[in-house]
Amino acid sequence: MAETSMKEPWFTSSRLGRFFPVHWKGWACIGALAMTLMTGAVLDNVLRSHGDAVLYYVVMCPIGVVALVLAGVIAGKTERT
User: Fold this and answer.
1) I want to staple 79 with a disulfide (CB 3.0 to 4.6 A). Which of 4, 9, 29, 70 is the partner?
2) In whole angstroms, what is the distance from residue 2 CA to residue 4 CA?
3) 28-45 burial, b for 16+ CB within 10 Å, e for fewer?
4) Which of helix, strand or coil describes residue 78?
5) Separation in Å, CA 11 to CA 19, 55, 72
6) Helices 24-50 & 53-76, crossing angle to 10 degrees?
7) Is residue 59 classed exposed, middle or buried when 0-12, 13-18 and 19+ CB atoms within 10 A define those classes?
């Protein structure tokens, strides 16, 4: 059976919705997620103006998967108090 307590949480979240990174890996994860989302926004604009739908989905789908994985890591490493 899996143990529910984390050895070292990367983030803390209170009942009031305050969310704060408490470990350097948390800051790195937030930075990676921010860079991924900004890259996706820029590429979205560039690829839509290019007009090739196949190229758009070939580039944007992996970026979306990376963003979802990073969001899952954040959710999994958060200690809720």
Assistant:
1) 9
2) 6
3) ebbeebeebbeebeeeee
4) strand
5) 7, 36, 13
6) 160
7) middle
What is the chain's length? 81
Q: Concatenated DSSP letters for 19-72?
A: EEE-SHHHHHHHHHHHHHHHHHHHHHHHHHHH--HHHHHHHHHHHHHHHHHHHH
Environment class of 13 (CB within 10 Å of its CB; exposed 0-12, middle 13-18, buried 19+): middle
Q: What does pTM read for this prediction? A: 0.78
pLDDT for the residue 20: 87
80/11 Cα distance (integer angstroms): 9
| Residues forming a β-bridge with 19 | 13
